[in-house]
Amino acid sequence: MTATEETSSSPNGRRTTTAVHSRDAAGWAQVCRLDQLVPGRGAAAKVDGRQVALIRWYDDDVVYAIDNRDPFSGAHVMSRGIVGDKAGIPKVASPIFKQSFDLGTGQCLDDDRVTLTTFPVRVTDEGWVEIEVEVEASK
Fold it and tell me: Considering the entire predicted model, what is its pTM?
């Protein structure tokens, strides 16, 4: 499996990774290397035409993958959200209206009617972050 990667840094030091990805036989797409993700921060990636927010947790090699689209504003900004925890639950808050979402389940912690899509994520022994995203059917 290979990935073509373009990485850029914004003026505030956040790294955004966008890429053209390929999949392995099991359907996992390489997104970036773990060491490219800053602990406690997010990065955006485009996988199979879908924007995904990758968030690396602070003190270990845990990475979460959620939909990058904020369901309240409609903007693709969740990768720029405020990362923290709420009562021990890892969460990200939208940078626009500040609703918080559980990184593990996508459940909005401020409105139980709203959820973000979450994606299975793994880190390979070689240090690659891979996610599994269903390919949307062509229209």
Answer: 0.83
